[in-house]
Amino acid sequence: MASTSYSTMSYVLLLSLFLSSIMVTFAGNLNNDFEITWGDGRANILNNGELLTLSLDKASGSGFQSKNEYLFGKIDMQLKLVPGNSAGTVTAYYLSSKGSTWDEIDFEFLGNLSGDPYILHTNVFSQGKGNREQQFYLWFDPTADFHNYSITWNPQRIIFSVDGTPIREFKNSESIGVPFPKNQPMRIYSSLWNADDWATRGGLVKTDWTQAPFTASYRNFNAEACIWYSGASSCASSSASSASSSWLAQELDITGQEMLTWVQKNYMIYNYCTDTKRFPLGFPPECNTS
């Protein structure tokens, strides 16, 4: 046991030393970090790069992606979701690599009828396989104002947080045969689209197009991360200044664990690790770890 802990600490220390000179912090003008990828004018970067909006109407949704790829980091973005009757709409905000064995870390916000809460859907894909969904209600109205949604991704764990409160932790369980996203750089993507075949009450509630256009807003992007340049064998930085690498070995302290427990006790509405109908022969191995 002591030997394993020492090896893990040594790995983290070496990786920290390697990355400490190549991590940079990005914040500010969204024009510098993102590009509109689809939507035919339904997506816009406004106010000199301070605000980004995505819109959905009956003809099409819209989306954007980051200009950079990242390999580990702490990614923050403030979102204000579609207000009013958003049933049938999905606002997806996620990290993803490419290819048939892609990795992915998901926030998806499933719209609902006016007055009913959004469902925050999370998932983790590794080597092209997901099926690790957890879903939550939020303890505030995510359409009334901007709130910060954060992904901390390092070699040991992935932490999903909302306004600094951890809601989910997915640990590296490669030692028991569970793939973990750690070798493929990922871009940030977001899209607003119509999914009324499944998004709201399993597709029972359809999108009310008289409420269109539906609009979600983004601001205050920040990334403490390692940029991956295509074709390079390691990360490289375009900035001479380096950022703090505290996220590289970040884990939940006692307060963070208590907050996580509070959220999962009071606001979690689905956990794949308790779905006996879906896994009648036994849960995935990571569900049995502490």
UniProtKB/TrEMBL annotation:
Domain GH16: residue ranges: 24-218
Compartments where located: Secreted, Cell wall; Secreted, Extracellular space, Apoplast
Enzyme class: transferase
EC number: 2.4.1.207
Record-level Gene Ontology MF annotations: hydrolase activity, hydrolyzing O-glycosyl compounds; xyloglucan:xyloglucosyl transferase activity
Modifications after synthesis and translation: Contains at least one intrachain disulfide bond essential for its enzymatic activity.
Keyword DNA-binding: no
Cellular component terms per the entry's GO annotation: apoplast
Signal peptide: 1-27
Family matches, as InterPro entries: Beta-glucanase-like, Beta-glucanase/XTH, ConA-like_dom_sf, GH16_AS, XET_C, XTH
Pfam families found in the cross-reference section: Glyco_hydro_16 (PF00722), XET_C (PF06955)
Glycan attachment points: N112
Entries under CDD domains matching the protein: GH16_XET
Gene Ontology biological process terms from the UniProt entry: cell wall biogenesis; cell wall organization; xyloglucan metabolic process
Active-site residues annotated for this sequence: E104, E108
Keywords: Apoplast, Cell wall, Cell wall biogenesis/degradation, Disulfide bond, Glycoprotein, Glycosidase, Hydrolase, Manganese, Secreted, Signal, Transferase
Function statement: Catalyzes xyloglucan endohydrolysis (XEH) and/or endotransglycosylation (XET). Cleaves and religates xyloglucan polymers, an essential constituent of the primary cell wall, and thereby participates in cell wall construction of growing tissues.
Family to which this protein belongs: Belongs to the glycosyl hydrolase 16 family.
Protein name (Swiss-Prot/TrEMBL): Xyloglucan endotransglucosylase/hydrolase
Native species: Lupinus angustifolius
